Amino acid sequence: MPKLRGEAFWRETLRSAHYVVAPMVDQSELAWRLLSRRHGAQLCYTPMLHAQVFLRDANYRRENLYGEACPEDRPLIVQFCANDPEVFVQAALLAQDYCDAIDLNLGCPQMIAKRGHYGAFLQEEWDLLHRMILLANEKLSVPITCKIRVFPDIDKTVKYAQMLEKAGCQLLTVHGRTKEQKGPLAGVASWEHIQAVRKAVNIPVFANGNIQCLSDVEECIRKTGVHGVMSAEGNLHNPALFEGRNPLVWEMAEEYLEIVRKYPCPLSYVRAHLFKLWHHTLQVYQQLREELAKVKTLEGIIDVNRELKLRCQEEIANQKEGEKPKEGLPFFHWICQPYIRPGPKERCRENGDSGTEKGGRGKRALEEQEDGNSELLSKNKQKKKLRNPNKSFDPSLKPKYAKCDQCGNPKGNKCVFNMCRGCCKRRAFKEIADCPGHGLLFKTKYEKSLSWQHSQRGIQTPEISQRGDAEVGETAVLKEAGDS
Fold it and tell me: Among residues 81, 99, 108, 169, which one is catalytic?
């Protein structure tokens, strides 16, 4: 059967999916996908999988894709991060029989993606991306899709999308934020960018960003003309988002936990989901928040969930007529609803003022720094500064280390060869020399071995003795160097 492309792929294979659950690391696992599908989701992605690890590790493949077959979990798109065409294609070939398409992640903005050189940090390398998608489109029996972030410039974003389409991408998901817009700096996604891409390409387009409820989905489709809308955080806080409902949190939590019993996943995934579902309630019951963080078993998580339910039901029973939600929430905290991520200033204020009427402990406040530049430091650096007020993060004040003559790494301050330890060890071994600075005593140990051989053998023929002792001594030093 020929591989479907573009609109035909979206209509027939993806069944004209409009409501899509995003690929989320450690969060869009099978159990969560099944819960989302029960409540309106029409298409799901796997969590982002690392192509290199997927290719070499059979356990990783089994845990993330080759587990128990589930016919309900279709249509399904498997997402990979990769930066090598051959590795990407080989991993995709191992996955293609378990899904309906393979997606290349070009949207991850996190530091791990920067270190690994994948995700949104490939968006300037158009030649590489063109080769990756072209090769995948030729080799795979299922379509290749891409998820991208936008450039600040709309025209460049459009050209980027057209390049991906030309290379063989059959469906494009556009997250309307740049790679710099993340965490507290996420801000509002640009639907204008998404609309421009939709008009410029001839393949189906999904929109991602600003989706908190069903009315957002409908408005996004109307304004941008996209084929479908993808939700990540909105879905995590309300799995019934695509149904247009705001159910009681414990209803969703209990249903999810039942699915986890049938389709187990790591406990960290389950805990993270309950932190999202119960987010607003856990601001009220801080003690249960701590218990949820510490619990070690699924049964323990179920017990915490049950206690949260009882607390909420008790609160409902004691509720006064006409009472309204607190903290500016649209609904009472026990109802599934969006969480609006605060900006940097709001977050610091929130950390400083947090706490509850019941005496719950809030997060430790980050104090303003004396130099007045605290907002320029990351949250982790602010915490370090709080613990040690004299600490400086000025690069010009950091100590400068002399470099190894051989490899450029910092050299040992007392090294006789002006090298790092690794280079020094190789040279000292080769020359049978000592370096007290690095604790390498090849020459000393060699001479001791000769002395020991003399004491064992007594007086021998000088010529034979010297040669024999040298060979034995050298063997001992070589063995000792190998052991170290």
Answer: 108
